[in-house]
């Protein structure tokens, strides 16, 4: 998901030096903003196609994929609303989105991070039930129950994000070294350093440590169950049961990859936010801190892009349907490409039968490129 100051999404807009005029040159800001634009484009293509695939293809509407669709929706929300706001900080020295934006953007960020980590926890619980306690699985109205659980996750995430709306506000910060002041969006009252410490630590525990600990416990039980199943299964065991266990193992590994990506991508954000919160009265303007902050922000937003592509690598069935849905989204492009090939073939044939032509046209990479064939034998 996304930001850099606070460990959730609130980081982005409310980190203590969130809109500080610390950014180097404008061209550096343009380069960073371009990276954001690429992440947004890749994330939207991947996540929207994933959601479309799971919604349209009936055979893929199972419990894990419904959770993954909810996860992708949270990533889309983050990329559409929060990533552009974060990118704007590298192009402007002031907060550009007013007081309403200061309250709304951190709320969306924190909601999206909560949806991500709690959905991953729900996925781990689902894999635990499917592998360790398969007899407890109820197939009747399974999709409805998953949708209700996903809605509960969204509701819980929004409830946890309510303090962002209440306390986030515009504050003026001062840099003693340069005697500069700037206005930034902060998620807590400006006076004192108790609020930032509570906020950063609570975010770190609720949105990172505790969920990952629960997921780790689930996977310990899953690993133990799989080891026991491998030992107890006879050499000539039932082929159907063996395939079923292998399928569940593959899905469990995929969920574990998602969890690992989340943990890696979000840890730097949490660390930097904790550092800033426990040094709240100081504004670190060093180049090292700036580079670390930029890398942490980009890494966090990268997490909102990678899940569809990770699933693409791990699942053959999803890869097939993903390609099909992606191609369906751009039939006009395919049609133009086919017409281009046909036109190119016709032109090549015409050229071979009419060598005396003064000029000919050829199609290159879908664009018309004029080639003048001068009678003097000079080709431009």
UniProtKB/TrEMBL annotation:
UniProt KW keywords: Cell membrane, Disulfide bond, G-protein coupled receptor, Glycoprotein, Lipoprotein, Membrane, Palmitate, Phosphoprotein, Receptor, Transducer, Transmembrane, Transmembrane helix
Any one cellular-component term (Gene Ontology): plasma membrane
GO MF, any single term: neuropeptide receptor activity
TM stretches of this protein: 30-54, 66-87, 107-125, 146-167, 198-221, 251-275, 287-314
Superkingdom of origin organism: Eukaryota
Domain called G-protein coupled receptors family 1 profile: residue spans: 46-311
PROSITE patterns xrefs: G_PROTEIN_RECEP_F1_1 (PS00237), G_PROTEIN_RECEP_F1_2 (PS50262)
Topology relative to the membrane: Multi-pass membrane protein
Cross-referenced SUPFAM superfamilies: Family A G protein-coupled receptor-like
InterPro entries: Bombsn_rcpt-like, Gastrin_pep_rcpt, GPCR_Rhodpsn, GPCR_Rhodpsn_7TM
UniProt keyword annotation of Transmembrane helix present: yes
Pfam families the record matches: 7tm_1
Entry-linked Gene3D superfamilies: Rhodopsin 7-helix transmembrane proteins
Subcellular location per the Swiss-Prot or TrEMBL entry: Cell membrane
Keyword Phosphoprotein on entry: yes
Family that this chain belongs to: Belongs to the G-protein coupled receptor 1 family.
Protein name: Gastrin-releasing peptide receptor
Source organism phylogeny: Eukaryota, Metazoa, Chordata, Craniata, Vertebrata
